[in-house]
Amino acid sequence: MDGPTTLAFYGLGAAAVATSVATLKKRLELSQAKHRSLSGHSRMARRLARLMPFYEYGEDRFFCCDGAPEDIAARRRAGFTRLSALYRTRFAKTIAHTAHASAAISDLRFTDAYRVPFQYRELVAAQLPSAAFAQSSDGVTISDLDGNRFYDLTGSYGVNVFGYDFYKQAIERGAARVRELGPVLGPYHPLIVENVEALKVISGLDEVSLHMSGTEAVMQAVRLARYHTGRSHLVRFCGAYHGWWGDVQPGVGNPVPAHETYTLTEMSEQSLRVLRRRRNIACVLVNPLQALHPNASPPSDSALLAGRRIPRFDRQAYGEWLRRLRQVCTERGIVLIFDEVFVGFRLGKGGAQDYFGVRADLVTYGKTLGGGLPVGVVCGKRGLMKRFRDDRPADVCFARGTFNSHPYVMATMNEFLRYLQTPQADALYRDAEHIWNERAHALNMRLAAAALPLEIINMSSIWTVCYTQPCRYNWMLQYYLRAEGLLLSWIGTGRLIFSLNYSAADFAAVAERFVAAATAMRNDGWWWDNPALTDKSIKRTVLKEMILQRLLSPRTTRPR
Ligand SMILES: Cc1ncc(COP(=O)(O)O)c(C=O)c1O
């Protein structure tokens, strides 16, 4: 080799080494930005989920899987039997209806299977069968098919902000206003213009696109970000829910991996470093609800194997995190998307943007904005919302949907948006945070005074029940609450959602029943106090059971 060729050869070699080092460094930075929990490692979680064997506790272990002595197990058994008898008489018709329907409603079969940790599933399903039907709603209550009235703590997955009577009226009035046009799709009803103007003001953004669900709105926001940045990857934060489509569910629940998703740790310096360094990131998705439990999945009772939930809510710290995120996104040309499908119009009229004082580039809304009917909305900056290029006619970002802008949905949304302009809505929003903080505090005082191992952590009207004592049976509380006339959604005590029309008297009744339910549960021996029982020891026991089961029946990996 002559001189210049050798030089070029060495030069190329040096460049290759430098590139590999840079790539390695980036990979290392990415690993460091992953949360240490399994939800932070989607691929591993998916693999482990496939390995996890099914097994269950028969009656012999069900009541004493924590090593409780015979007298405690007997108390639990008696409590369970009493509760079962109460369910079978008080909810008889509703249970029968549910049992009949669930054979053919796959959604129901799924939710029923995931109300409690799977080891207890069979016996619970047999003795405390689910009662998933309702007949009517009134004020803050819902009645089942047997005529029982429950205080509603489900909040209809967060849709119910102003109370069911409000949405009933919105649907009725809205339907009357568009009756003449009927369900015509394609041409718009004129009131859509009013909706769009109101949404522009509320979001502080320039344009609006209309969809049918929160999931679709998030899909569209991410697609727009990819289209306009020309980059492939989305960043979501560990544990955050953004609907059920593939790219935002890279872990358990999605049969195929999401190759263009990074799941990073929220409120982490390392994650900001990844955003600063990588060039392939189109957008960052934030679900501000995660402020209540950063980096943890939505708390569901089916995951209450050991006991501890780790929510903490620090409005200032989360706001500060969002500000820093905003800054990095601006510097790097990354689209910042606030997914306000849940918290929008609940935390305040201006949603999380106002609540935390940070502006996003795109914001998704849904749930309550539909005034009682299904909807999804994207609001965004003009430059990001455009779906075609003037200079390249074939380069488009396609998004349509048969039912987008349905006149009836637009009309109920209009009722909702009009209500937001009223002094009543102003008053509700002004006082909501204070009222719900006070109520959570008051209930916590009562729980502490009664030495019950429970604590409420809340973000305004969104509550989660925390268990302060390691216990294998915390998930039982949902059944005691129902027996006291408190209605929860299928994820149980992990999320209680209140509508803002709860009066002081309504809430006093809920608090009374809550304490009564917890007291009954304690009296039945479920919170047996054993100092040797720690969350760690429980997790270790369960892991051993799983390994043993796996060894005994290695083929039972994926029931179909
Ligand atoms: C933050 C967030 N994004 C998206 C969705 C999905 O909305 P939908 O269920 O209307 O598809 C939800 C639903 O709970 C949500 O909470």
State the gist of this model.
The protein is 46% helix and 11% strand. The chain is an alpha/beta fold and 560 residues long. α1 runs antiparallel to α11 and α9 packs across α15.
Layout of helices and strands:
Layout: H1 3-32, H2 42-51, H3 59-62, H4 70-90, H5 92-102, H6 106-113, H7 121-127, E1 136-138, E2 141-143, E3 149-152, H8 164-178, H9 191-203, E4 207-211, H10 214-229, E5 233-237, E6 261-264, H11 269-277, E7 281-286, H12 315-332, E8 335-339, H13 351-356, E9 362-366, E10 376-380, H14 382-385, H15 407-420, H16 423-449, E11 454-459, E12 462-467, H17 477-483, E13 486-487, E14 496-497, H18 504-523, H19 535-552
Parallel strand pairs: 3-13, 5-6, 5-7, 7-8, 8-9
Antiparallel strand pairs: 1-2, 2-3, 4-10, 9-10, 11-12, 12-14
Bound molecules: pyridoxal-5'-phosphate.
Pyridoxal-5'-phosphate binds at residues 157, 213-215, 218, 241-243, 287, 339, 341-342, 366.
Write up this protein:
The protein is an alpha/beta fold. The chain has 19 helices and 14 strands. The chain has helices at residues 3-32, 42-51, 59-62, 70-90, 92-102, 106-113, 121-127, 164-178, 191-203, 214-229, 269-277, 315-332, 351-356, 382-385, 407-420, 423-449, 477-483, 504-523, 535-552, and strands spanning 136-138, 141-143, 149-152, 207-211, 233-237, 261-264, 281-286, 335-339, 362-366, 376-380, 454-459, 462-467, 486-487, 496-497. The strands form 3 sheets. The protein has a 7-stranded mixed sheet with strand order 4-10-9-8-7-5-6, with helices on both faces. Strands 1-2-3-13 form a 4-stranded mixed sheet. Strands 11-12-14 form a 3-stranded antiparallel sheet. Helix 8 (164-178) packs across helix 15 (407-420) and helix 9 (191-203) packs across helix 15 (407-420). The chain is globular. The relative contact order is 0.14. The structure holds pyridoxal-5'-phosphate. Residues 157, 213-215, 218, 241-243, 287, 339, 341-342, 366 line the site of pyridoxal-5'-phosphate.
